[in-house]
From TrEMBL, chain A:
Source organism: Actinomadura soli
PANTHER family named among the record's database cross-references: DUF742 DOMAIN-CONTAINING PROTEIN
Protein name per UniProt: DUF742 domain-containing protein
Pfam family, one: DUF742
UniProtKB/TrEMBL annotation, chain B:
Name recorded for this polypeptide: ATP/GTP-binding protein
Family: Belongs to the GPN-loop GTPase family.
Domain of life: Bacteria
Pfam families: ATP_bind_1 (PF03029)
Keywords: GTP-binding, Hydrolase, Nucleotide-binding
Length: 118, 199
């Protein structure tokens, strides 16, 4: 239950992101769902980006899960994801902030989903 | 087995899931957050790390991070696929003011927060409650019952925590799935009431 610190997290973040500390777009919530678009060539990508694309080829995962699986801080993961969306390797499926209007419906569905687990 | 680069493929979400929501599980150290998330999560709980400056800014907000002193804040989280369409993520986080930038980020778009408290150390929960209230996040309070912790009458706990009359106060056992699910249900039921009441 105590996840081991892994080596990836020890890579200096500014090396991984090529010196940038800010994502090129600000659409990534921790629960934004991300998946790979398909078979764009991965040549020229950094090893971390290749890992992300390969991880995301199998299906959708949240930004937090990608960060957790790769052992990279969320902030750094966002920068890399942002680049990979720009380059067409990744796409997003759903973000967090729910529009106010359908919020009641969404909450009702969440509630029903939880009750069904009892 | 906990290596982030585990060779087994990660559990991907079903293709039908289009909506992701999050709820924060907040409380002081050792109140039971990790246990709670582990009990409810359908995936092996994961941990993400965020690097913060001493001023409490996340590294992705900085132009340069080279020579700043950073600390690492760990958050664990779990996942529950609730319906064909909806996945719920639970994020466990200590309610600490000095991490307020991280908080802004986590709290933005969150449905609400479940604050875990221990009756043996109620005063240690005040900081967490302050942070949640400052974020304007609606919340419910769950007393995570530890053996040996005193059990106070509900109104005494309410008074000690200065809870608004409508705020749910429930008891749970973070090791028990049913009891933990019920605490989440109380929270979401409360959120629904709040949203339905608003014009
Ligand atoms: N008796 C009892 N022990 C618990 C309960 N929840 C957590 N614990 C124990 O309390 C300790 C701290 O819990 P943990 O989940 O790590 O707390 P965190 O620091 O808030 O994540 C662990 O040893 C748990 O096994 C509970 O509901 N009842
Ligand atoms: Mg913990």
């Amino acid at each position: 239950m105590t996840p081991r610190r892994n080596e990836r997290a020890l890579v200096r973040p500014h090396v991984v992101t090529g010196g940038r500390a800010r994502p090129s777009r600000n659409v990534f919530d921790v629960v934004t769902l991300v998946l790979a678009t398909g078979d764009l060539p991965r040549t020229g990508l950094t090893p971390e980006k290749v890992q992300i694309v390969e991880l995301c080829l199998g299906g959708a995962l949240s930004v937090a899960e990608i960060s957790g699986h790769l052992g990279l801080p969320v902030g750094i993961t966002r920068v890399l994801l942002s680049d990979l969306v720009d380059s067409g390797h990744l796409t997003t499926r759903a973000g967090a902030p729910a529009a106010p209007a359908p919020k009641v419906r969404l909450l009702q569905e969440v509630l029903d989903g939880l009750r069904a687990r009892l | 087995m906990d290596s982030a680069l585990a060779s087994e493929p990660p559990p991907y979400l079903p293709d039908t899931v289009r909506t992701s929501v999050k709820i924060l599980i907040v409380g002081h150290f050792a109140v039971g957050k990790t246990t709670y998330i582990g009990t409810l999560s359908e995936i092996r709980p994961l941990r993400t790390e965020e690097r913060m400056t001493q001023a409490g800014a996340a590294v992705d907000d900085l132009a340069g991070i080279k020579d700043k002193t950073t600390t690492t804040v760990a958050m664990d989280f779990g996942r529950l696929t609730l319906t064909d369409d909806i996945v719920l993520y639970l994020f466990g986080t200590p309610g600490q003011e000095r991490f307020s930038r991280l908080w802004d980020d986590l709290a933005r778009g969150a449905l609400g927060a479940l604050i875990l408290v221990d009756t043996a150390r109620l005063d240690r929960s005040f900081a967490a409650m302050d942070v949640v209230e400052k974020q304007g996040l609606p919340y419910a309070v769950a007393v995570n019952h530890f053996d040996g912790s005193p059990s106070f009458p509900e109104d005494e706990v309410r008074e000690a925590l200065d809870l608004a009359p409508g705020t749910p106060l429930v008891t749970c056992d973070a090791r028990d799935r049913r009891s933990s699910t019920e605490a989440l249900i109380s929270l979401v039921d409360h959120l629904l009431t709040l949203d339905t009441e608003q014009p």
